[in-house]
Design brief:
It is a single chain. Helices cover about 25% and strands about 45% of the residues. By secondary structure, it is an alpha+beta fold. The chain has three domains: about 40 residues; about 80 residues, Beta Barrel (Lipocalin), CATH 2.40.128.200; about 100 residues. It has a nine-stranded antiparallel β-sheet, with helices on one face. The radius of gyration is 36 Å and the shape is elongated.
Length: about 250
C-alpha cells in the first residue's frame, strides 16, 4: 500500500509539473505575440501615409499666349492632364497623350504640341507652326483666367496689383519681396474726376488705390494702357498703369 501511494503521489506531482510547464509556455507565447504586435504596429505607424491616387496631384495651371505665323494667335491653359485652347471662334478641351519630349494633347481631330515657349497646333484642317509664347501677355491672361478683374503694374521698384471685385486686393512690391493682401471693399466712384478709389486695411497695413480713367504709358516698355493707377501702402507711394480684365 505504501509503494502504491508513493507511486500515485509521484504521478500527481508529474502531472502538476507538466501543467505548470504548459501554462508557462502559453504565457511566454502570449508575451511574444504581444511584443511582435507592438513592433509591427510601431513600424506601420512610422510609415508615411500613401496617397490613394498618386496620379491625382493637382498642379498649378500654366497659361500661354501663342503668336503664330499668318497673324494667328491663341491662348492655352494647361491644367494637369488637360489643355484648354481659347481660339478666335472656339474653345477646345484636349486630353494629354503620351509623348517622349514636351507635351502633346489631342482628341484625334485637333492636336496641340508644346515644348518650352514653342508650340504647334493642328486644327480645322490647318497647321499652325512657329507659335511662340508672348510671356508678357501670358502674365495678364493668367491673371484673367484666375479670376482677377483689374490688374496694374509699375516700375522702380517693380510692383503689381490685382483686384478681385468684392473679394481681395493683392499688392506685390519691391520686385516680389513685399506681399500684402487685403479685403476688397466697394469702391468709391468719382464721376467728375473719372476716378475709382479703393481704401482698405489688413494686419496693420493701410492701402489706397486710385484708378484714373486716362491714358498711361509704361515707364520702361512704353506700352499703352487705358488707365493710370496710384497706390499708397502705408506711407509709401507707387505709380503705374493698369487695365480691366473682365
Amino acid at each position: 500500500m505504501l509503494v502504491g501511494r508513493r507511486f500515485g503521489d509521484k504521478m500527481v506531482r508529474t502531472q502538476l509539473k507538466m501543467m505548470r510547464m504548459t501554462i508557462f509556455s502559453h504565457i511566454i507565447m502570449a508575451i511574444v505575440l504581444l511584443l511582435l504586435s507592438g513592433c509591427l504596429n510601431g513600424t506601420a505607424s512610422e510609415k508615411p501615409a500613401q496617397p490613394k491616387h498618386p496620379n491625382s496631384v493637382q498642379r498649378e495651371p500654366k497659361t500661354f499666349v501663342y503668336e503664330c505665323s499668318d497673324a494667328f494667335s491663341f491662348v492655352a491653359r494647361i491644367e494637369n492632364n488637360t489643355a484648354w485652347l481659347f481660339l478666335p471662334r472656339k474653345t477646345l478641351s484636349l486630353p494629354k497623350v503620351p509623348l517622349g519630349s514636351g507635351a502633346k494633347f489631342s482628341d484625334n481631330m485637333s492636336t496641340f504640341w508644346a515644348k518650352g515657349d514653342t508650340a504647334i497646333l493642328d486644327y480645322n484642317n490647318a497647321s499652325y507652326r512657329n507659335c511662340i509664347n508672348n510671356r508678357k501677355e501670358a502674365i495678364w491672361e493668367h491673371a484673367k483666367l484666375n479670376g482677377v478683374d483689374f490688374r496694374a503694374t509699375g516700375n522702380e521698384p517693380g510692383w503689381y496689383l490685382e483686384i478681385r471685385n468684392r473679394a481681395s486686393i493683392l499688392f506685390v512690391g519691391d520686385y516680389g519681396n513685399l506681399r500684402a493682401e487685403f479685403p476688397a471693399p466697394e469702391p468709391l466712384v468719382d464721376q467728375h474726376r473719372r476716378e475709382t478709389i479703393y481704401q482698405t486695411h489688413s494686419d496693420g497695413k493701410n492701402l489706397k488705390v486710385v484708378i484714373e480713367d486716362r491714358p498711361c504709358r509704361d515707364s520702361m516698355s512704353g506700352e499703352a494702357f487705358a488707365t493710370m493707377v496710384r497706390v499708397k501702402l502705408n506711407q509709401k507711394r507707387y505709380q503705374g498703369c493698369g487695365r480691366a480684365l473682365h
